Amino acid sequence: FTHSRSSPSCSSSVQLWTLPLPFLSKPRDFSVPNSSWGPEMMRLYEHYNSQCEVEMEGGGKREGLWRKLPSYNRILKYATGGVYLSKIIQSKARLFTRNIREPGAAFEYVLFANSEEQKCVGIFQAGHLLEGPPGHVHGGAIATMIDTVTGTHASMLSGPVMTANLNINYRSPIPLGSTVLLESCLDKKEGRKIIITCKVMSTDGSKVHTETTALFLSINVCHLLERA
Ligand SMILES: CCCCCCCCCCCCCCCC(=O)SCCNC(=O)CCNC(=O)[C@H](O)C(C)(C)COP(=O)(O)OP(=O)(O)OC[C@H]1O[C@@H](n2cnc3c(N)ncnc32)[C@H](O)[C@@H]1OP(=O)(O)O
């Protein structure tokens, strides 16, 4: 893949969006267990991870219904950068959810996708730096979790997207340090619009913390980069 400063070479947004995938050096996947993950985080991780591969009768394995999505601390860092991307590559930009080095201090999370059911789930453990009301998670941090799961889901369905609207109903507060399960479902796709619903729930499913409808719009990444 090559590209130059001018935008015509960047006319295929899908082509650019796939840039982070063929890495030159293997990037670190942050969505794997670390010592800060509590028992609930581990339990849910193992629950979905065990459904990524299914054992067959003959002893072999085949792909399961779920797929674990890797998560890096940058989106474009590993692209083969030409002049066109240099401003971004040289910057110190980091993905908002992956910019605290101390394990467990902020967002610990892992996402799984089920393409057959057009579903995505996120398992999040909210660390002490995410406090809002005393002892509970900040509403903006909760919105970030929702945006991460629904935004990833929308981009899996439609390529590059931007969040146009997040309509969140906060039903019950999330205790700091706890683990929550986010379930994202495709509602509908209409042209460039992708509408996704998402629930944040306690890990046993007994409590709904938030309910969200999210609107994403497919974009041409080149237009975004030209503004950077
Ligand atoms: C393989 C996959 C791997 C995945 C690996 C991904 C890794 C990634 C992980 C990170 C995942 C985190 C995901 C974060 C995602 C952000 O955080 S994005 C940052 C926050 N969002 C923004 O900053 C967006 C700012 N807004 C904009 O840039 C522009 O308004 C938009 C959203 C691009 C839309 O602009 P536009 O393309 O010019 O569209 P426009 O013509 O205005 O509207 C088109 C249609 O949408 C409607 N519309 C537009 N906005 C709205 C709105 N707010 N409400 C209702 N309708 C609207 C219009 O009415 C119009 O409708 P129709 O008339 O066609 O029926």
UniProtKB/TrEMBL annotation:
Entry EC no(s): 3.1.2.2
One record GO biological process: fatty acid metabolic process
Predominant location category: membrane
Location relative to the cell: Cell projection, Ruffle membrane; Cytoplasm; Mitochondrion inner membrane; Mitochondrion intermembrane space
Record membrane topology: Peripheral membrane protein
Cellular component annotations (GO), alphabetically ordered: mitochondrial inner membrane; mitochondrial intermembrane space; ruffle membrane
Residues covered by the Thioesterase domain: 135-207
Enzyme class: hydrolase
Catalysis: reaction(s): (9Z)-octadecenoyl-CoA + H2O = (9Z)-octadecenoate + CoA + H(+); decanoyl-CoA + H2O = decanoate + CoA + H(+); dodecanoyl-CoA + H2O = dodecanoate + CoA + H(+); tetradecanoyl-CoA + H2O = tetradecanoate + CoA + H(+)
GO MF annotations in UniProt: hydrolase activity
PANTHER family in the record: ACYL-COENZYME A THIOESTERASE THEM4
Name the record gives this protein: Acyl-coenzyme A thioesterase THEM4
Organism: Mola mola
